[in-house]
């Protein structure tokens, strides 16, 4: 049975639909990443689960039990807010003990539990400090220890790493994953960072305008987005817009508005009279010397001119102009090869199976 289940949950503020008929499950010990642009309803979804908001419609269930009518303190939820809101006048020890004291946890056992949580988040020795005497990353860990201390049935983390700089964020992302797995927490992590969502989540939900646009394993969402919105939200992409011509063998001929022809997989549903957008991820495009056979044949090949080469550590990011003037973004692994030069004529190639076809305007 799922530890957390939302069924057709809707939340209105006046006539504004903040959360629009969403349903999903989270299984025991799994992490679900909730991803989407600012204002799409992520925090509202967490507030509905924790009981700070009441749905206008639908149900929130914990291990099969309907939470209707239960106040926040009657739900076994460990919460970490968007700004992690530690109590500034309390010590680290008092902050972590807070939830335990307010939930009638056996008083004699509180010190041991606090100590256990502080070793989990690697903050032993910091017990008597106040939040103002800690770095951002340390405060974040105290907030996490506080959320996990109460043996929560469900853990809700709202942008847990957003207050941190990029390097610390990456380090803590890995630590956070380890800590959650150590306590087998059933977790929802809200983020608007797609890399974070994909690296933390066993599954990912992409939201927009209060609705779930797509849900799946991180790799599935990246390689098989159903709409342009999801494809653009998860990772970088190159786009062509055009029409599909009659097909065979599960493949179709695609003709772009600028006259490019390529072979693509046939999308689900009708292809007649509809415009499609084709997405090709930058790392799926191969660059060859002119006249050099493509290792991706039989595929899609076109001439191009390199307009920019940027060497970013392990990766090369190239901008290539193709016939019609469109600029493609291409990434290559940098393994010490001679760098392509701006102005160089090349041919670019990609497999039909590397093309993602979605309805235009989706
Ligand atoms: N109490 C409220 N009254 C009216 N509208 C609200 C209220 N709370 C949230 N909203 C609106 O509901 C929508 C969803 O808000 P929410 O806080 O869930 O967004 P979010 O996805 O968490 O965004 P962010 O990434 O910026 O945190 C927004 O348009 C917001 O303005
Ligand atoms: Mg929010």
Characterize the overall form: globular
Q: Report the radius of gyration as a whole number of Å.
A: 25 Å
Q: From the coordinates shown, what is the CATH architecture of the largest domain?
A: 3-Layer(aba) Sandwich
What class would the helix/strand composition place it in?
alpha+beta
Ions, cofactors and other bound molecules: adenosine-5'-triphosphate, magnesium ion
At CATH level 3, the topology of the largest domain is Rossmann fold
Instruction: Say how many strands there are.
Output: 20
Q: Round the mean pLDDT to the nearest integer and report it.
A: 92
Tally of discrete structural domains: 2
Provide the fold topology.
Blueprint: E1 4-13, E2 16-26, E3 31-35, H1 42-50, E4 57-62, E5 65-66, E6 77-80, H2 92-101, H3 110-120, H4 136-149, E7 154-158, H5 166-182, E8 187-191, H6 194-200, E9 203-208, E10 211-216, H7 218-223, H8 228-233, E11 238-248, E12 251-256, E13 261-265, E14 275-280, E15 286-288, E16 300-312, E17 315-321, E18 327-333, E19 345-350, E20 355-359
Parallel strand pairs: 3-8, 3-9, 6-7, 7-8
Antiparallel strand pairs: 1-2, 1-4, 4-5, 9-10, 11-12, 11-14, 12-13, 14-20, 15-19, 16-17, 16-19, 17-18
Bound molecules: adenosine-5'-triphosphate and magnesium ion.
Adenosine-5'-triphosphate binds next to β2 and α1.
